[in-house]
Amino acid sequence: MVAGLIAHLKGRLDATGLDHAVIDVGGVGYLVGCSSRTLASIGPIGEAVMLHTEMLVAEDFIRLVGFASASERDWFRLLTGVQGVGARVALAILSALEPADLARAIAAQDKAMVARANGVGPKLAERIVRELKDKIGGVEIGGAGVLAAPTGASADAVSALLNLGFRPAEASGAVAAAEEELGAGASLDALVRLALRKVTR
After folding, report:
1. Of 11, 29, 60, 155, which shows the fewest CB atoms inside 10 Å?
2. CB distance 63 to 87 below 8 Å
3. Tens digit of each residue's pLDDT (9 = 90 or more) over 23-65
4. pTM for this structure?
5. DSSP E strands: which ranges in 58-110?
6. What's the CA gap between 135 and 120, in Å, rounded?
7. What's the rounded Cα separation, in Å, for the pair 41 and 118?
């Protein structure tokens, strides 16, 4: 399964179901799988909507998954990188836990919190927190906790570096350093350029 090339969809919300939304983009209805958290936040049917997306491609299907935020999409990518976690299970986890709560659970190795999600048993929850601990970076024992998940231009910059093949911890650290140097209002282009210089030094 590999990610495709559709980064986001912007159109009109045509319909929603238990685990999906239909986005009308120029007369074409895109069926997009979503977490319940994303479905609850995208607004009423008939209104304009924009979803960050991940396109999953396998031998027997092509599927779009949509997210209300770039950070939720990035967590989906991390989760589906764990053996035994497919798109359905990753969406169940993101339905049960906000990205910040998920980050805290992994930092604390709290497998019981991850196991709250439908379809996640104790063994899989243990594998998730163990494998992702080294990938989220930014954990201070007894201190302020996990670094906040990036949002806005920062999240898009992290996503850009992930697409270039950098590891999540590398991408997050380089973008955080770039944002600290450039200031909170830095553009996506400036963040990516500086982050790339930092990560390739």
Report:
1. 60
2. yes
3. 999 999 999 999 998 999 888 899 999 999 988 877 777 889 9
4. 0.64
5. 62-67
6. 20
7. 20
